[in-house]
Design goal:
The protein is built from eight helices and five strands, in the order αααααβββαβαβα. By secondary structure, it is an alpha/beta fold. Helix 3 (41-58) packs across helix 5 (75-85). The chain starts with a helix and ends with a helix.
């Protein structure tokens, strides 16, 4: 019986049956402080709970792992508090057929408000793979950058975004799929520090995936 809550329950059962608090603690081997002990973890968790609620409202598609990376917290602690708050991903809505001929993803109301980035792959004459990072403005359809390397890691992605933000300014949102390079903890922390919101295409929406890939592919072909 190592839990303070369990000790207090046993002590309360004995005191309710007429045993004095002093005698009950002496027979059970408990300290007298058990009866007046106040849990400290609740006070420590309160600021984290408020941050999780604010993060889930701002980014409804975040799960506890992505919220932990966004807030630079331990995933086990965030998972416990996430369950305590009863937070979960919203239910998937039925897929609807998209009407119209506009190929832009919704949300780019003005220039430099939403950037889209994704990877396009190609091969050299000897069969070696090339990886192209394409970044474009959703509103103007301007290709901002194309980085070509054998491999591109999350650190390379951050360097490219830093250079573009110095040239064009910071966008409000960055839209991508759920690739490992875009959802890495280092990328999420960097976006949080830059006050740029990550926007991910909704799972189960293949038309958004096709539009995102078509946009970045046209950006790569424009070179």
């Amino acid at each position: 019986m190592t839990s303070p809550i369990g000790r207090r329950r046993v002590l309360r059962c004995l005191t309710d049956r007429g045993v004095s608090e002093r005698a009950a603690c002496r027979h059970l081997g408990f300290s007298r402080r058990v009866a007046t002990y106040r849990l400290q973890q609740t006070v420590k968790d309160q600021p984290i709970l408020e941050q999780l609620v604010a993060t889930s409202q701002s980014y409804p598609r975040f799960g506890f792992r992505r919220a932990a990376a966004w807030l630079s917290l331990g995933p086990k602690r965030v998972r416990r508090l996430w369950r305590q708050l009863g937070l979960q991903l919203p239910r998937r809505r039925p897929r609807r057929r998209r009407c119209g001929s506009d190929i832009r993803l919704p949300g780019a109301a003005q220039p430099n408000s939403v950037w889209t980035y994704d990877f396009v792959f190609d091969q050299t004459a000897n069969g070696r793979t090339l990886k192209l990072l394409c970044i474009l403005d959703e509103h103007t359809r301007e290709c901002l950058a194309i980085e070509v390397h054998r491999w591109i890691r999350s650190q390379d992605l951050l360097l490219t975004l830093s250079r573009l933000m110095r040239l064009y300014g910071k966008p409000q949102y960055l839209r991508s799929d759920h690739g490992a390079e875009f959802t890495a903890a280092a990328v999420m922390r960097w976006l949080r520090d830059q006050n740029v919101g990550p926007v991910f295409i909704a799972p189960g929406s293949p038309w958004q995936t096709d539009m995102l890939r078509a946009s970045t592919a046209s950006c790569a072909m424009s070179v």
